[in-house]
Specification:
11 helices
Length: 291
């Protein structure tokens, strides 16, 4: 059996599409569908979309806690994790399942695609960054190096992780590193596609990146010598090439160049958060424009 776990929060308008993108797939094994959310509206929408889904109400203290509830309730040999504001491409779940035919694989992630339009700055940034992550993961996959699997779509071999630490900002990064440290491989499945809406304004972009990229320094207290896929230094070395080579015209080149000071500002905020030891609730802010 496979366990598909969808975590959501105030996503009554999007979770139906997420569930239908799963139900429409011809999943090769029997599966259970668990929907975890703190609000009645989201759970009601999930029930309407799939009456057979198992609904679990969490206490709205963080995705890490919702996932812990899912880990305890799930019965499958493989856990498929995704968010209620995303939706999956056809056959994505089977492709993730297939990655575990290799017994050395402990966690695998799909390819994230932006649904934003490419006609403005924020849409362009979303596609640029998604493409850069894709190319970096392909290189790491070829060389059998460590890969950070994206939380938008993750497959996890059951039993490796029983519980996540409280107040995690980057649950996906923690899970990837934890599985790698346990001696398993991290895998990337580029044909398993998941579609996500990215922030459409700079304020929300900072909120989202501040908590996701900002979660990496937080992991140093859990992992001492785990290889890194993201850091300020790695981004400073590889980022300019990705950004400039992605541009197809002068307007896009200008947008790529603007990304440099924006990312520098982001990392300054991240270092400030670390220096001042900001709490989870001070950093984790809901991003409305991605819904």
């Amino acid at each position: 059996m496979i366990s598909v776990i969808i975590t959501a929060y105030n996503e009554s308008k999007t979770i139906g599409k997420c569930i239908k993108s799963i139900a429409s797939q011809k999943i090769k094994e029997p599966y259970e569908l668990l929907i975890i959310a703190p609000d009645k509206e989201t759970l009601d929408s999930a029930k309407k979309a799939n009456p057979k889904a198992r609904l679990i109400k969490d206490n709205a203290i963080g995705k890490w806690n919702a996932l812990n509830m899912g880990f305890k309730k799930a019965k499958g040999r493989i856990l498929i994790l995704c968010d209620g504001d995303n939706y999956l491409d056809k056959d994505s779940i089977n492709l993730i399942i297939d990655s575990f035919d290799n017994e050395e694989v402990g966690i695998s992630g799909g390819k994230v695609l932006s649904t934003n339009k490419n006609k403005n700055l924020m849409g362009y940034w979303s596609k640029l960054l998604a493409d850069a992550a894709h190319k970096e993961k392909l290189k790491r996959r070829k060389n059998k190096n460590f890969i950070d699997c994206s939380g938008n779509l993750i497959g996890l071999r059951a039993g490796i992780i029983s519980e996540l630490p409280a107040d995690l900002l980057s649950e996906d990064a923690y899970m990837s590193k934890y599985v790698w440290n346990k001696g398993f491989d991290t895998e990337y499945v580029p044909k398993a596609k998941v579609y996500a809406k990215y922030p459409d304004n700079f304020s929300d972009w900072i909120k989202q990146k501040r908590r996701s990229a900002g979660g990496y320094p937080q992991l140093n207290k859990y992992f001492k010598k785990t290889p890194k896929m993201r850091s300020f230094l790695i981004e400073a070395i590889k980022g300019p090439f990705y950004a400039i080579s992605y541009a197809k015209n002068l307007r896009e080149l200008f947008w790529s160049l603007i990304l440099f000071p924006a990312r520098l500002y982001l990392w300054i905020l991240i270092f400030y958060d670390k220096l001042t030891k900001k709490k989870f609730k001070q950093v984790w802010k809901r991003v409305e424009s991605t819904k």
